[in-house]
Amino acid sequence: MALFMDTGLLLRKVNNLRCFTPRRNRVKEKWAATRAKYPPTTLALQHFDAAYGIQLGHLWPSVRAALLCERKYGALVNNFSDDDVLSDLQDQGCRDFISDTDLEVHLEQISAVGVEGESSDLSTKTSDISHQQLSPLQISRNIKCLVFPRGDITRFKPAKPDKFGLLGYYLMDAASVLPCLALDVQEGHNVLDLCAAPGGKTLTLLQTQCLGFLCVNDSSISRTLRLKRVLHSYTPKPFLSGDNLRITSFDGTKWGEIERDTFDRVLVDVPCTTDRHSLVEDDNNIFSRSRTGERRRLPQLQLELLLAGIEATHPGGEILYSTCTLSQTQNQSVVEQAIHLAQENHSIHLQVVDLKPLTHMFRKTFHFAPNLHLGEMVIPHLAANFGPIYMCKLKRLT
Amino acid sequence: MGACVAARQVLRWSVRSATSSALFSPLRFGCCHVQPLCISRRLLCSSGSDCILQSNHHGVTDLSGKHAAELSLRSLVNMGFTDSQAEQIYETVSKAKGASSAKHALSALSSLFALGLNASTVGKLLEKCPQLYTIKESQFQQRIGNLRRQGLGEGSLQRVVSHYPQILVVPMKKINNVGMFLREKCLFTVQQVTEILRDSPAIIEEDLGELEYKFQYVYFRMGVKQAEMVKSKLFRFTLNEVRSRHCFLERRGLYQTPDKKGQTLIVNPKLNSILTVDQDTFLAQVAKASAEEYDVFQRLMAREWQAEEHQENFEAVSDDDEEEKDEENEGKKAYMRRKKK
């Protein structure tokens, strides 16, 4: 770069663009020879001990042990694949946790569910007050996710491509399927996935095969590329055409301005401290000292994204907010603030949709945190090492 | 040992010159070298089992008197064995090949009685450890002497032998190696080594490399010092048992590795309360977790450790030219090398 004499400013000659590149995009030239004294994973653990020890109380030791041990995966069945994935996996001992529940779920009809104890026949017993409060449960259809039974630590083998080159199943945290189920995507709905990368939940939404139009966005270009690769491995080309799908890399917080009052359903799966990942991986860890500022701005970013998602939904539509952290500051607090600000600044009236029926339905497979005043949370447990996943569903009334 | 030999000689001379004395009457039946030793033991030992020794001597000397190496059921019963025990011993000896098998059996029996063990214990030991029959007389005495030198005095010696008879079957070198290893590598005191041998005699069968790793794990990773290790009978437990319980507590946040100054943010449970209790008590009181969690945890850990070992073997092949010169930290470095991710 030469000196700009005519502007009157003297710029020092710059050899390379390193000082202009954001730190996170720089290539690492020098690698440390010894391990850091307090690596980011240790810092993360200390942080969690302090925060969650209080928040979860006596549940924290079990959650802590589960977070530090190997996670459990679920196999999301690819409905576009030719192979009979379902029976193959079932032969290995897995079962589809979505259909394997005590309760019957009518997707079109509304039915009150109230099963007490081990009885397999359904009867609308409403002797318990909590059952009376259970509103009808509707979940997105066609999604199948297989898991090994409780306490079984068998690993899934990698998926193999079928004769069209599409993979049979996608390995992901089974709890990540829950937000997509809770979103309750119905026939012909226009759906927005605001922070889609790396693409697990997007893929899950595509499995419903009843979407009108799907908008997929992530603020990071590199992660969007990864998302595209995932979609190409699992979905046939016709489903990825411009008539059905749009993939973008815009700043998600601007959506209120871009496409206001447009969508039937919006999934806001915000960037968070990714608790499980932060305890295990040192690379690119959000608890490293260089990313402290970024980490402290997270709740603000999450709030802006949620508000954008709310603005993008048309009245009568639903928004699902989800994170993969246990932290109250990134979960309940964000939702509460968003509801408040939406009312204050945009006169948008929101109603919280009760997800208790969902937790009741899947209580055999997952451990849910008890007594959350807003939303529901899957907490890790050694015998069911899924999560952490927090979700909260909002319905836009005005 | 010298005193014994001297005493034995003295007795032999006195025996030869003695006429008939009630005390020495059994000797009329022959000059088996076993007898004086038994008696010298009786004189030198202060154990209170005199009458048992007396009756056993009668039985043994009866046998030795016959010379024909006959180990009949009746003589066995005379020694104090029950009928079933006598039958079993007789059978085992008859099945054993070689002409001297009966003689060996005889010497084994007499040596065991000489220790001061009663007949029922001896019977159980022989059942538990049939190799005892094959030990030669001299070997027997040498090994007993060696154990005494290791610090196992009266009472302790009998206890160890009755709980773990295999300790008499292994060569002295093995026991001495273990003792030396514990003193020099692990820096246990001599008294502590004796206590370890007494409480966990099975340690002699363990591979020294594995033993070292177990010690280093508890010393460095758990921050436990030698005295507490001895008190909690650490060497009775396998490495996996220790690791499982420790890692379970560690991942639950109930156990922390002490820092350089030996401090932790929380109070670690004592090694005693972790190891010596049964699993249910451990889960209920120390870990405060369910059995289901611990069961899954153990399986996950087994898989993790297997993967670590694989990784380690892979790295060891490519790691051969590294050398540690630092004596002080050698122990810890060796441990960290094996432990590193």
UniProtKB/TrEMBL annotation, chain A:
The active site is at C324. It is found in: Mitochondrion. Signal peptide: none annotated. GO terms for molecular function: RNA binding; RNA methyltransferase activity. GO terms for biological process: rRNA methylation. One of its GO terms (cellular component) is mitochondrial large ribosomal subunit. It holds the Pfam family Methyltr_RsmB-F. Residues 96-397 form the SAM-dependent MTase RsmB/NOP-type domain. The keyword ATP-binding does not apply. Keywords: Methyltransferase, Mitochondrion, RNA-binding, rRNA processing, S-adenosyl-L-methionine, Transferase, Transit peptide. It catalyses: a cytidine in rRNA + S-adenosyl-L-methionine = a 5-methylcytidine in rRNA + S-adenosyl-L-homocysteine + H(+); a cytidine in mRNA + S-adenosyl-L-methionine = a 5-methylcytidine in mRNA + S-adenosyl-L-homocysteine + H(+). S-adenosyl-L-methionine binds at C195, A196, A197, P198, G199, G200, K201, D218, D251, D269. Gene3D superfamilies: 6.20.240.40, Vaccinia Virus protein VP39 (3.40.50.150). Belongs to the class I-like SAM-binding methyltransferase superfamily. RsmB/NOP family. This is 5-cytosine rRNA methyltransferase NSUN4. It comes from Sphaeramia orbicularis (orbiculate cardinalfish).
